[in-house]
What does this fold into?
Amino acid sequence: MSWLLEKINGGLVRVFLIVVALFWLVPTIGLLASSLRSPEDMSASGWWNVFAKPSQLTFDSYQKLLENSDITHSLWNTVLITVPATVLVVIIGALAGYAFAWMEFPGRDWWFLIVVSLLVVPVQVALIPIAELFGKIGLFGTILGVVLFHVGFGLPFAVFLLRNFFAEIPRELLEAARLDGAGELRLFTRVVMPLGGPAIASLGIFQFLWVWNDMLVALVFTKSGTQPITVALQTQVRQFGNNVDVLAPGAFISMVIPLAVFFAFQRQFVTGVMAGAVK
It folds into this structure.
């Protein structure tokens, strides 16, 4: 009887999870269906009617999107912002995390405490002061300024996460590498980085998603020629109102790229999260 109850309970849990997943996917499916319909069909009926009339599906909206230079340019700006901001945070965070975990230098614990305390600083507090600073040094309205802002606010979490992960590496393993003549740089690249791969992948995914989906920082620090896709879509809403034939495919492309990145590194992400939980 107990095994039967376990199977029933397990089946109910699976059904519940499937229902939750379907509800979670409804907005994504609706956005995809809307992006494949003409503006006339969207104004006449809801997106769910596409299942009854598959003939409504068309790629005309995506063709129109590719002809919209503002959207395509903003999508490229998003790549130019997100990729450097993610790579720099991962590299600098890994180096600093290794230093805080395994290198001795004066005031190490105090410096790490200062880094951790920066986690509680909200982004909104720094917008105006940094905007004034960037304006004085000529970085306001540039892609480089947005990248530096994201790197600055992404590093505290990166250092905190990777330092705690690197600190759990067995000391004996590092000592054995040092006895074999490995210096700090070789020790970092040949031993620490491979072992910290799951944590680094998790950090990269978090940073990529945060920067790609950001609109607040980009809205403050970018101009018309440097706007990412989030700000460009918001501008389309303000300027054209019901410009859904551009907004729907643009929003879907903006959403599907980070989803693709997440699913591509899903195994490393789960491994990193589970490793951190076990430790």
